[in-house]
């Protein structure tokens, strides 16, 4: 079912410093920061040859990553995003397997403009998983 | 400097259950378990089209991931591995930038038989980073 690893998301308190770490210290190609107001994040894309790292900083008053950054002031890996061909077929399969889909179980439009679901870390080896319809 | 994301390592207490999650629930292609005694882990490779997930279970009495699994009984993302062309050039660049290389700073032979270094999470957005000479 799962296809490519679309990205690894790393949440940080200071996006400028994180960008300098990836662009300067690690010598990776990085984008400019993009505000994604409706998802409560500012994001910098680190472009690797085979996938992306997304550096996320909380944006606005009700960012969904604010609590994570408060608990992890040095930052941390927030989630992994796997691509799927059909988000509804994926959702139905996961529910049939007894896995917990977060929220109301209905796909939402994610930060890339494509339908996504988030899966409960406790059911997926302690890692928050995003599924994105490719 | 950094190239491909070689793998994401997820450490778990129960490799059989984790394998079932990836092979069964998520429908990914997985390998048989491999014991890597000298690195204190048993590993199952999850083969995605563009990279790998490595599911790691502690092996033996002094596994380097035993403490992590004790602190994270549901499992968790343990590290990210980026490829570099020249591990010594990478090491020298990182030291010149003031980043902390773990251990004595000399590359060791990693679980894939290639030279690796580990970098301090506090200097890399809270994520433990492995660099592997490709």
From TrEMBL, chains A, B:
Its EC number is 5.1.99.1. It comes from the Bacteria. It catalyses: (R)-methylmalonyl-CoA = (S)-methylmalonyl-CoA. SUPFAM superfamilies: Glyoxalase/Bleomycin resistance protein/Dihydroxybiphenyl dioxygenase. InterPro entries: Glyas_Bleomycin-R_OHBP_Dase, MeMalonyl-CoA_epimerase, MMCE/EMCE_epimerase, VOC_core. GO terms for biological process: L-methylmalonyl-CoA metabolic process. Keywords: Cobalt, Isomerase, Metal-binding. One of its GO terms (molecular function) is methylmalonyl-CoA epimerase activity. Residues 4-134 form the VOC domain. PROSITE patterns: VOC. It holds the Pfam family Glyoxalase_4. Belongs to the methylmalonyl-CoA epimerase family. This is methylmalonyl-CoA epimerase. It comes from Methylocystis bryophila.
